[in-house]
Amino acid sequence: MSQNQKAVYVCVVSKSKLWLPGGQLPCMPLSQLPFAGGDTVTVGDYQQTPVVGIFNCNAMLPDDEMAGFRDLLPYLSADLFALVGRVVQLDHMHHQQAFCGRCGQRTEFNVQAIAMWCSSWPAS
Question: In whole angstroms, what is the distance from residue 102 CA to residue 106 CA?
Fold first, then answer.
């Protein structure tokens, strides 16, 4: 069964806030998301359920469904909180390293390496 049909913890970060419909971290198949697009990265598993970060989805998420990462602290176990924190870190990296430090070209998010990548430079 692919991740599109299997339930996963969905972490969507926009403007340093998490999408929390109903005040909770959603656990649903990706095919049931109310928006499409974006880069997905699996950052780990929590109790045999993948935790997936979604970046660049450009969804118009309602402000009343957005909350800060720390708002989840009383509600999540330490292990799940750490995985969600990894998604927040990756989102921060994505925005802070948008341009190559060597040549100034726009970088791209490399899902396999979980890193920002400049296509102007050969892989080393």
Answer: 11
Q: In sequence order, what are the beta bridge partners of 67?
A: 18
Enter the tokens of residue 116: 């920002």
Q: Which two tokens stand for residue 46?
A: 């929590």
Half-sphere exposure of 61 (CA within 13 A, CB side): 24
Q: Which of 9, 14, 33, 8 is nearest to 81 (CA)?
A: 9
CA distances (Å), 91 to each of 17, 50, 60, 110, 124, in order?
10, 18, 17, 13, 24
Considering the entire predicted model, what is its pTM?
Answer: 0.79
Q: Which two tokens stand for residue 119?
A: 């296509």
* Pairing mode, strands 7-14 and 49-55: parallel
- pLDDT digits 0-9 by tens, 34-64: 887 777 889 999 999 999 998 877 677 888 8
